[in-house]
Design goal:
203 residues, 69% helix, 12 helices, single chain, mainly alpha
């Protein structure tokens, strides 16, 4: 597989069709993504950046999202999870409001660089439920891609945890939010399709 470069990131974003300011912002965000995700790998052994690029692709091609800021948020949605120390860089180049949105999409134990403890899961679910529609859309797209990628994970327990979370949290959350926008309605349909697929595979 060829290394991921800035041109590929911009192509996945569809930035060539954006206005001048948004294209400039895309180049900055793409460069930061290459820096932040560099040297990180998924537990499947693939370069970490492949995951946020897949989330961007899902949003663009399956949900028909074309809002530049939402797609940049998708590109960097895991930046503070894998590299909490990148917060100052993000604020400097993309602004405090954008970085605050990323913080709201990141579990507290990740931001604090500590092991997960009792109560963290409850707080994390509450944090996700409070996200505004576009940010929730990105978080749910992240979950869809993670579900699709489960088969490649070597962690046996990962499938059980993700499917449990799908049935008792993410699917009800998406159901409750589906009336907020056509995009969230479409995202609910994707999550439900993943639920049905995994139920069939497990039967």
């Amino acid at each position: 597989m060829n290394p991921i470069d800035l041109d590929r990131v911009l192509t996945v974003l569809g930035a060539a069709t954006w206005g001048t300011d948004d294209r400039s912002r895309a180049r900055v965000a793409g460069s930061i993504a290459l820096t932040v995700y560099d040297s990180h790998a998924r537990d499947q052994g693939t370069p970490y950046l492949e995951h946020p690029l897949a989330v961007v692709t899902l949003l663009r091609t399956e949900i028909r999202v074309n809002h530049p800021e939402t797609l940049l948020l998708a590109l960097l949605h895991d930046a503070l999870e894998v590299a909490p120390e990148s917060e100052a860089l993000l604020v400097q180049h993309l602004g405090f409001p954008f970085t605050a949105r990323l913080r709201a999409m990141t579990a507290d134990h990740r931001l604090e660089q500590r092991p997960k403890v009792a109560g963290d899961e409850t707080r994390w679910r509450a944090k996700q439920a409070e996200l505004p529609p576009e940010d929730l859309l990105v978080r749910l797209a992240d979950r869809v891609h993670n579900l699709r990628d489960l088969a490649a994970s070597p962690k046996i327990d990962r499938r059980r945890r993700f499917l449990q979370g799908l049935s008792d949290f993410h699917l009800p959350l998406a159901e409750a939010a589906r009336g907020l926008s056509p995009h969230l309605d479409a995202m609910h349909a994707l999550l439900h399709a993943e639920y049905v697929r995994h139920q069939q595979e497990g039967s």
